[in-house]
Structure formats: structure tokens, C-alpha cells
Design brief:
69% helix, 2 domains, 14 helices, three-stranded parallel sheet
């Protein structure tokens, strides 16, 4: 056996020898190449120093997929498939097993990890920039198409989808009232507790009422309502339109000559534009009510005194807060619908687009709220 390349399995007869001067190295398999012996085989057998050109399996006792996988790892799928074709002492069943494992593992070799280059970070930044610009361009194009479709419907009221509009108003607005009211009530209580803790150090606990009123009228009321709609309604828009695309319902609408923008997007946008200011107003009242509860129960401020202080807050702050609601509504609806149209046709794509829709909506809402706050401050409003 000095001219043979030997791979043996069990400890008593496990060995690996090779003659570097042999022109036609032969692979000799002995023992059991099974799952029970896999751990010991993997430690005792190493990669042959020469590429074998033939296989002698006359001493092979047993082999299963675990042993065949180990042979593929040692020799490579192409080499194993080549020598199996010219093997001696190999039963047809074992030959078919080795060929099947080699074929299934072909192309699955782990690629070499690419070396990090100094320009990789710059390349990643460029990729993100291009992707962001592409998404922004798609959003502007979709916004323009929606505005064009909406303007074309202004003079044709008989084409308005009133049933769809009312249904979306119920789903996006009426059904969201409990969660919006509860969340803002609790946040109002938290803001009141925080304000009382800080202002008590200066003997100005009474100004907790102003803190709650100003915070919810200008910022928190509409902002929290918009964030809730971004997570609740925008995701629903994306999932609904995405599911329609997966089921080829959008293609059916196109074949019938119907506009998906007119049927699906316009009612959703109008529903949010109508309902978000109402939800924002409910959120403001709920937040102030939460602050009133804390003031009455913990701060020794009577309800009459609390209401009297709130009435002294200029109404301008309420309009400044509610004025942001239609803008938030349009952006949430546009992003939710656009991500639904981006679904590629699989359930996984629906989940990915839904996640992207929620993330983008929340980011845009918070960003615009910050910009509006800076604008109000510069205008001294």
C-alpha cells in the first residue's frame, strides 16, 4: 500500500499515507464512515497531500450521508464525483449516495472572506446615498402622480369613492380613538408628574398646568397621534396594497382600465387628512385630562382652578399644533401606499415593506415636527 493514499476510519487501522512521487495516487477507504464515527473520523483524517485519481472501496464497511459529507469536505465535490465514477469495490447504492452528496454540496464551499479595504466604508456610504436618493425620487414621483390624479377628480365628483373613503375613515380614525386617548392620557399624567417634581423645587408647582397645556397643544398631542397612525395605519396600508399585488389584484385592476391611485390611494389620503386633526384634538384633550387628574389628586390644584389656567392659554398654540396634522397625514398615507406598491410579490417582501413603511413614517413625522418647532420659534409664535 505504499503507493496508495489511504484514509481509514477506526483508531486501530486509521492512517493516511501518500507517495509524493506517485503519478496516479489511489484513495483507499477502509472501515465505517458513518455518523457514529463522524467525530473520531474528523479528528483522525486530514486533506490528502495529492489529488487522488482513483478510488478503492473494497475495504469499506459502511457509509452514510455524514461520512459522504466528510469526504466532500476533504476532497471537494468535483474531485469526489470524478473518482467515484472510476471506483472499484463500491456498491451501486453507495456510489449513488456519494454522487448525490457531492452534487448537492457543489457550489456551497464557503467563500474566502474579502479583505477590508480603505475604500469599503466610502463605497458603503455611496451605496446608501444612491439608495436614499432613489427612494426620494420615487416618493416625489408618486406624490406628483397622486396630486395629478386628485386634481383630475376634483371636477368629476361622480368618480369619488365615497364608500372606500368612509371605510378608511372608520379604520384609521374611529377605531384608533381608544388607543390614542389612552396613550395621551397616560403621557399627560407623566408630564404632570415630571413638571411637578421639577417645579416644586422653585415653589412654582402651579405652573405644571401651563406645562401640560402648552406641551400637548403645540407638540405632544398631534405628534403622538401621528406616531400611532404611522405604526398602526401606515403599516395596514402597506400590507393591504402589498397583499393585493401578491395576489395580482393590482394587475386585474390595470387590465380592467381602472386606476389603482384613484381606487386605493386617494381614499386613504383623504381619510387620514380628515381623521388625523380630529385624533390630534382628542389627543390634546386626553393629555390635558391626564394632567388634570394628577393636579387634582397630587398637587392640591382644584379642577376649577386647572380649567381656569388652561383657558388663559392663547388659542394660537392649539392651531399651531393642529396645523401640522394634515401635513403628517398626507406623508403617512403616501409613504404607506408607496411601500405597498414596492412589494415584489412574496410574503417576505410584504413584511420588509411594512417594516420600512413604519420606520420611514415615524422618522419623517419626528423630523418635520422638529423643523416646525424651529420655524415657530423663529417666527416668535
Amino acid at each position: 500500500m505504499s503507493n496508495a493514499l489511504v484514509l481509514q476510519s477506526v483508531p486501530s487501522d486509521a492512517a493516511e499515507t501518500a507517495d509524493d512521487h506517485s503519478l496516479w495516487p489511489r484513495l483507499l477507504l477502509n472501515g465505517e464512515w458513518t455518523l457514529q464515527k463522524y467525530q473520531r473520523l474528523s479528528k483522525q483524517v486530514s486533506v490528502p497531500s495529492q489529488k487522488p485519481r482513483s478510488l478503492d472501496a473494497s475495504g469499506l464497511v459502511a457509509i452514510d450521508t455524514a461520512g459522504a459529507t466528510l469526504l466532500v469536505d476533504l476532497l471537494g465535490p468535483d474531485t469526489l464525483a470524478d473518482i467515484v465514477e472510476r471506483a472499484t469495490g463500491l456498491s451501486p447504492e453507495w456510489k449513488a449516495l456519494l454522487l448525490a452528496v457531492a452534487t448537492s454540496m457543489r457550489g456551497q464551499e464557503p467563500p474566502n472572506a474579502p479583505k477590508q479595504r480603505w475604500g469599503d466604508g466610502l463605497e458603503a456610504l455611496g451605496t446608501l446615498t444612491v439608495s436614499g436618493w432613489r427612494q426620494l425620487s420615487q416618493f416625489f414621483a408618486f406624490t406628483g402622480l397622486t396630486i395629478t390624479t386628485l386634481l383630475s377628480l376634483v371636477l368629476r365628483p361622480w368618480r369619488w369613492r365615497w364608500t372606500a373613503l368612509v371605510a378608511q375613515m372608520q379604520q384609521a380614525g374611529l377605531n384608533a380613538v381608544p388607543i390614542v386617548a389612552l396613550l395621551n392620557f397616560l403621557v399627560g399624567a407623566v408630564v404632570a408628574f415630571l413638571g411637578a417634581t421639577v417645579l416644586a423645587q422653585f415653589g412654582a408647582t402651579i405652573y405644571t398646568v401651563d406645562l401640560v397645556a402648552y406641551a400637548f397643544m403645540r407638540e405632544l398631542g398631534v405628534l403622538l397621534a401621528a406616531i400611532l397612525l404611522a405604526g398602526r395605519t401606515a403599516s395596514a396600508f402597506t400590507a393591504q396594497i402589498g397583499s393585493m399585488k401578491v395576489n395580482e389584484e393590482l394587475d386585474a385592476l390595470k387590465v380592467q382600465g381602472l386606476s389603482a391611485i384613484e381606487l386605493l390611494v386617494i381614499p386613504r389620503i383623504l381619510a387620514l387628512v380628515i381623521t388625523l386633526p380630529i385624533l390630534g384634538f382628542i389627543a390634546i384633550l386626553s393629555g390635558i385630562a391626564g394632567g388634570a387628574m394628577v393636579a387634582v389628586l397630587s398637587l392640591n390644584i382644584s379642577l376649577t382652578q386647572f380649567i381656569g389656567i388652561v383657558q388663559q392659554v392663547p388659542l394660537l398654540h392649539l392651531w399651531l399644533g393642529l396645523g401640522k396634522a394634515p401635513v403628517f397625514a398626507v406623508l403617512i398615507a403616501l409613504i404607506g401606499c408607496l411601500e405597498g406598491f414596492k412589494v415584489s410579490g412574496s410574503a417576505q417582501s410584504v413584511g420588509e415593506r411594512t417594516t420600512a413603511s413604519v420606520v420611514q413614517c415615524i422618522f419623517v413625522v419626528i423630523l418635520l415636527d422638529a423643523v416646525a418647532a424651529l420655524f415657530y420659534m423663529e417666527m416668535d409664535w
